[in-house]
Design a protein that fits this description.
The termini are far apart. The protein is α+β, with helices and mostly antiparallel strands and 633 residues long. It contains 17 helices and 23 strands. The protein folds into two domains: 381 residues, Rossmann fold (3-Layer(aba) Sandwich), CATH 3.40.50.1460; 190 residues, no CATH class. The longest helix has 49 residues. α15 packs antiparallel against α16. The strands form seven sheets. A six-stranded mixed sheet has the order 2-1-3-7-8-12, sandwiched between helices. Strands 16-15-18-19-21 form a five-stranded antiparallel sheet. Strands 4-5-6 form a three-stranded antiparallel sheet. The radius of gyration is 34 Å and the shape is elongated.
């Protein structure tokens, strides 16, 4: 035993020397597709999808070798002036160019993998998206690019890990087609299970909006979702300062950044899940950048910053917690002449600027030149979006976000404004129909109970033994079936309570509207299950009556054969006939009739045209907003 401690020490000290050298970082490839104009006629044109594509290209070029990032977009005149070096190398976002880019990248990735290196591949899309009968698609310039196309592309590229970033409405359905688990909506668990089965080595970062329009902001010259995502990817979401941005960190960063926006329609909502079903998987490793300028921000004070390049183009925003060290990686072209502003602070009207800086350099805010005046910010509709990044982000905010998410119900994805409106109409109609139906059933129930009890009491009061037996039997059967009916009525969903709950959730601005729809959807389908139970009970009662009819008819024939009086034979035959009529009535009700509420719920579950309802969206733009209306009229 006395030799054990020296031996353990020797082994411990020798392990690093005997161990292998750290594995090299993965090689990064990216295909960025950005499309302002969808192929569908009448689609509102986006203003900044091409700008988003160009910014994503600049970001991934920090991580990749020249030529390993492909950009497919159509640059408008403003974007060409901002990114003149991109014009010769970009191609249109068409299906043919996507296929050609995938083939070229697949060949290049296969070559790198043969050398023993791991490969991370990023597929990024910014533009319009929609859904048709439950299957989502992205809009290229000439056709739809759907879930099957995306899966085929990812399998063709065959990277070690793939990361899908989609900034388009309905992008949720591109990765997870509608009706996961047979429902109209889906939860994170549905999404996780679906990804694990079909794309185990793929991580996704999605905008989960189910609306028709992508929200853009002219002050950002970008989509809101993409700007928040890029700010986080550059390092603002690196809460633990380890140089890696995980899926969980970026999801929390984006959610916290948009928390103070008053209008929920303008808040980007994300779904983030890394390869291997892990939210802690690395989305981007900033320690492996090839060419970047590192901007370090002092850990001690809290600070809110906006970063612009020399042309005034906004590249990143952040709101750092006190005590959080921060290192942002910036493309060298962006860092030259960089301006840093402090929105909302004591220097609101001033900006710091950085002069020439070499790629690979590390700079501190203290090295920036003295502040210079800034022009006043425009006001109006865009004031809504100035609440972006109003809440500080850091380790404490990340931990609080995780605790809050564990305490709250799981979010619900895939429910649009149109569907919420359709649900409102459905619940109101359901309540009205059920109220009238229950009044009718109460009247019939009372009449049947009074009639049955009265008949039984009359037979018991007649005095002879046979009449009393028949009366008691009739009373017992009547009370049995009436009690079963009453119990079933009491166990049914209360339509009035359902309507009150739905209206209350709609009136609560802080409530997740998707959760309200999901709860009503669950309760409506539970009502449908109750109706099926009633039908099964009716069918069971029908067959009992049918058996009783056959038995009574047999008794009548036995009496006839035994020479019993004709009165007894006819009495048995009449009872058999009445039992047969009751049996037929119950069986017909169980098999060939349906209530109005059943039809309503079935329509909600199966209507393929729900998503084609007209949809209205307000898109903030310079000096005001753009009203967009889409759908089938």
């Amino acid at each position: 035993m006395r030799f054990l401690l020296p031996l353990l020490v020797a082994l411990t000290l020798s392990t690093p020397a005997a161990g292998e050298a750290p594995s090299p970082p993965p090689v990064v490839f990216a295909l960025v597709v950005a499309n302002n104009q969808g192929f569908a006629p009448g689609r509102a044109r986006l203003q900044y999808a091409d700008d988003d594509g160009a910014k994503y290209h600049e970001f991934f070029s920090m991580l990749s070798a020249p030529g390993d990032v492909v950009l497919l977009t159509g640059l408008d005149s403003d974007t060409r002036r901002l990114f003149p070096a991109l014009e010769p190398q970009v191609r249109a976002p068409s299906s043919q160019n996507v296929a050609e880019a995938a083939r070229a990248l697949a060949a290049r990735i296969a070559e790198v993998k043969r050398s023993g290196r791991e490969v991370d591949f990023y597929f990024v899309f910014a533009g319009h998206g929609d859904v048709d009968q439950g299957r989502g698609f992205l809009e290229l310039s000439d056709r739809a690019f759907d879930a099957d196309d995306l899966q085929a592309l990812l399998r063709q590229v065959d990277a070690t890990r793939a990361h899908v970033i989609l900034d388009s409405c309905n992008s949720f359905f591109v990765v997870s087609p509608r009706k996961a688990g047979g429902r109209r909506y889906a939860t994170p668990e549905d999404m996780t299970r679906s990804l694990a089965q079909r794309l185990p080595a793929v991580g996704v970062l999605l905008s989960t909006s189910a609306e028709a329009e992508v929200y853009e902001w002219s002050e950002l010259q970008s989509g809101v979702f993409s700007h928040v995502v890029r700010s986080g990817l550059m390092g603002a979401a690196d809460a633990d300062a380890d140089g890696r941005v995980t899926y969980a960190e970026l999801e929390a960063f984006a959610s916290i950044a948009a928390r103070e926006i008053p209008n929920p329609l303008f808040r980007p909502r994300l779904f983030a899940l890394g390869p291997g079903r892990s939210p802690q998987a690395t989305l981007v490793d900033l320690r492996a950048v090839r060419s970047a300028v590192t901007l370090r921000v002092d850990a001690v004070p809290p600070v809110r910053l906006t970063l612009r390049d020399a042309q005034g183009l906004r590249w990143a925003d952040l709101n750092k917690e006190a005590g959080m060290p921060l290192a942002l990686r910036l493309p060298p072209r962006v860092a030259r002449g960089l301006e840093v502003e402090r929105p909302g602070g004591p220097d609101t009207a001033r900006a710091w600027s950085l002069g020439e800086v070499a790629p690979g350099a590390t700079v501190e805010l203290a090295s920036f030149s003295p502040p210079m005046p800034m022009p006043p910010a425009a006001r109006g509709v865009q004031e809504q979006l100035r609440s972006l990044f109003a809440t500080p982000f850091g380790p404490e905010a990340l931990a609080a976000f995780e605790r809050a998410r564990q305490a709250e119900p799981a979010p619900v994805y895939g429910i649009s404004l149109a569907e919420r409106e359709r649900m409102r109409q459905l619940v109101e109609t359901f309540t009205t129909v059920e109220r009238d139906r229950r009044r009718t059933e109460t009247i019939l129930f009372g009449a049947t109970l009074v009639s049955s009890v009265g008949t039984g009491a009359f037979l018991v009061a007649e005095g002879d033994r046979d009449s009393r037996v028949q009366g008691i039997s009739a009373l017992a059967v009547s009370l049995l079936f009436s009690g079963a009916d009453l119990l079933q009525q009491l166990r049914r969903e209360d339509p009035e309570a359902l309507l009150r709950e739905f209206h209350a959730s709609q009136a609560d601005a802080a409530a997740d509207p998707g959760l309200a729809v999901a709860r009503v959807d669950y309760r409506l389908n539970r009502f449908l299950a109750q109706e099926r139970n009633i039908r099964r009970r009716l069918e069971t009662v029908g067959w009992i009556y049918m058996g009783a009819s056959a038995l009574l008819l047999g008794i009548g024939e036995v009496r006839r054969a035994n020479g019993s009086p004709g009165h007894d034979v006819r009495e048995a035959e009449r009872a058999a006939l009445l039992a047969a009529v009751s049996a037929t009535s119950n069986l017909l009700r169980a098999r060939y009739t349906g209530s109005a509420t059943e039809h309503l719920v079935r329509q909600w579950n199966s209507d393929p045209e729900l998503r084609r309802l007209p949809r209205v969206a307000v898109v903030p733009s310079s000096g005001g907003a753009m009203l967009a209306v889409g759908g089938v009229f």
